[in-house]
Amino acid sequence: MKQVLLAAIIGTSTLLASGPAAAQVKPEEIIKFRQSVYTVIGWHVRPLGGMVKGQIPYNQAEFLRNAEIVADMSKIAPHAFPAGSDTGATTRAKPEIWSDAAGFKKVMDNFQAEAAKLAEVAKTATSVDQVRGQFGALGKSCGACHDNYRTK
Ligand code: HEC
């Protein structure tokens, strides 16, 4: 799934290998990829938020579909921060992502866990009340990273 999504997003197989192969990709390409990953994440979180806030009617299938995309994308996100992709184009990624790798991994792991949990809860949630709490937990996991690892 991850590879299919990656290939779909960048239309090439150059990024499929992590490690040394990825390091040969230009920083500006990685940064573009990274911002695209988060753009997709934000895009699919939007209807979830709309449903939770009551701005759009709750639709279980639509909620689940979007939550699953966010969960899949959360698995791609850690691969969008190879060393050396801190500069080279306009990026809001803070140097702490690399200098505090353990702290960054913690918020990334938490984000993945909350996204997976939301997709799981959504499978059986027949009302929006059953997803509201976990949606809030997911939102907190975004903020935990943005507050510390993304510039304003
Ligand atoms: C582990 C860290 C981390 C988590 C978790 C995270 N983000 Fe981000 N996000 C970033 C960083 C870093 C950037 C800046 C990327 C750049 O400019 O290179 C960013 C950028 C973005 C952007 C702007 C993309 C663009 O156009 O440049 C959006 C939208 C976004 N995040 C939404 C979200 C949402 C919604 C969540 C949770 C569902 C989330 N993010 C979770 C680190 C994170």
How many beta strands in the DSSP annotation? 0
CATH level 1 name = Mainly Alpha
Percent range for β-strand residues: under 5%
Q: What fold name stands as the CATH topology?
A: Four Helix Bundle (Hemerythrin (Met), subunit A)
Number of helices: 7
**Could you say what the CATH architecture is?**
Up-down Bundle
Outline the fold blueprint.
Elements: H1 2-10, H2 20-23, H3 27-52, H4 60-76, H5 96-99, H6 101-124, H7 129-149
Bound molecules: heme C (HEC).
Describe the structure.
The protein is built from seven helices and no strands. With 152 residues, the protein is mainly alpha-helical. The protein has one domain: Four Helix Bundle (Hemerythrin (Met), subunit A) (Up-down Bundle), CATH 1.20.120.
What are the defining features of this structure?
mainly alpha, Four Helix Bundle (Hemerythrin (Met), subunit A), binds heme C, 7 helices, 152 residues, elongated
Quick gist of this model?
The chain is built from 7 helices and no strands.
